[in-house]
Amino acid sequence: MTTTQERLTPQPPSWLGIPPFPEAVKEELAKAEQRKNLRHATGTIRTKRLLRAAEVDNWEELRTAAAEIKDRVGRHLDTYLVQAEKAMTEAGVTVHWARDGAEANRIVAEIAKAKGVDEVVKIKSMVTQEIDLNEALEQEGIAAWETDLAELIVQLGHDLPSHILVPAIHRNRSEVREIFTTEMGTYGTPAPEGISDDPGELTNAARAHLREKFLRSKMAVSGGNFIVAETGTLVIVESEGNGRMCLTLPETLVSVVGIEKILPTIEDLEVFLKLLPRSSTAERMNPYTSLWTGVTPGDGPQDLHVVLLDNGRSNVLADPVGRAALRCIRCSACLNVCPVYERVGGHAYGSMYPGPIGAILGPQLRGLEEERDRALPFASTLCGACNEVCPVRIPFTDILVHLRNKVVDYKTSKHPTIEQGLMKGAAWVMKDGTHLSSAQTATRTAGRIFKDKWLGPMPIPLAERWLQARDVEPPPTETFRQWWKKNREGENR
Amino acid sequence: MSAREEVLSRIRKATTDVKTVDPALDVPVHWTYGRALATTDVLGDFVEKVEDYKARVVRVASDGVGDAIVDALRELGATSTVLPDGIPDGWAESLSAAGVEIHRDEPQLTHAQLNVIDAVVTTAAVGMADSGTIALDHGPGQGRRALSLLPDRHVCVVRSDQVVSDVPEGIARLAPALRARHPVTWLSGGSATSDIELSRVEGVHGPRHLWVILVD
Asked: In what residue span(s) does the LUD domain sit (chain B) (predicted)?
């Protein structure tokens, strides 16, 4: 392929262009419209989720069961994967394994080429975002069309997703209208002339735009919410029916699924199909759930493939504290409840997994080699709201603290830092009363020098930036110990 | 080493701390499967929850189904419908008598043909009251999956003995079909999206209208 060849699908920006979290937030926080959109959206869904969870008497019991089932799967993943592979193969599915994203992308592209297709329709899938499948297919001359409404808004908007469930949550209706009127016509059926910003009208435009693609596409690519190991059943949970279209109409279906998505038995579905919709869209049940077990002659795709993807998941599994992150069922309740996410939005996290789950999953999947991943465990106030809403009881704050520790270890293993020196000094001071008194002699002296003068900006390493925005009282000329000696010692109380 | 062997060996290395071989002994699951809810009026709950999704529900006696389907199609503005194999002859006769154009899936209709048929009439496998969910196992009367997907209006006939209180009972009823590798589709209202400002819009790609006939 030559560099001058025209693109088939809208060019997205790259995650790599986003600076580490502490830098990125500055820009994101300045986007007033985005903050307004996010406050409205997360507020609405938080209230609804509470209502739907409260309707279920044994909600807490369900959460415990879900956590236990997922832990069971994680701790015995090799057994369940082999079982699932066998069941799927017997049902007529071709099972592929992929060590990483590049390998999975290659497998999907090869299937497409073998089928002679130059376009695929896609069901919204986090895992194909994770491996950047669309761009890999574009490079191979295959157009990947997103069919979920929010993903369509993101794709046509040359944008990046900012939420696990509602990737275009940062966009309001008039922005969507603008994107549809300018972009739809370039890639298929255009938006109707004079379309308003009414969500119903916009949705109808998407229906017409995509119907054409559904009816002509020969191949679809999906993710998967669950694979039942016992039967090899795949489950996809969705709202719009674009999923059913992709799972039913094309001749070939490739599902790329993370290895942690296994459930042991059919019966386990009852736990997750109660928890997931109420936690994600805050509905009693999502409009459509599709379950299929291999090829059904005369019904749906006759050529089924499943790509079981590792891409860092086995690294997550290797950490007994961090592995609880693999319980995640991508509901996004932790995003909606997070005070940090609500204000900065999804893009600042620098990956398709934003919010609390992104802060614990991203650095574990990708490792700590890059600065953006080392910054993520700190993108939290540790308020713990995510712990409370998580339907699979992921202990977010425990994992965040654990990862902060790992980040510090990583940094100090490279070179000792000023903080480390200060902490060492503080440890020496605190270790012994006599050490403390000698340190206090120094602070008293400083106090006498400054007298009543407040401390402003000063060129002291580390403290310098802190003092830029704050004034501090001078150190006291008398320590508490001296005061006690003078005023209290010897009193019989 | 193949990708399969490598991924499995990574997983085994990552879980060397797991000493108990039997998954059920290693991590017990504190859950009783297949339990019913204590709902007193299961059918009433089912109707309420399905209507909550803006779907229409009518309740009829078993001899009134044919007429109820005719009424549904008329009100939905449908003049043509596809009927899957296994739909009772009596229903088809009511539809013909009312002048509805009937399409059969024999030989299989193309997607383009299905796309321009106004409606589909199906039976169902299970109804789950608490979540207002109808499950199709695509057995007789329900047709292959494309039939209940491409036409814009879905009239679904559910027998009251098919309705259970909640999802766990529903899964228990569907388990044999799933183990027999039947595809299964759950419908909870018509298709919907909340992708623009989280404001719910009914009707995207799936049938935009779901009409449920509950047979007492």
From this structure: 46-215
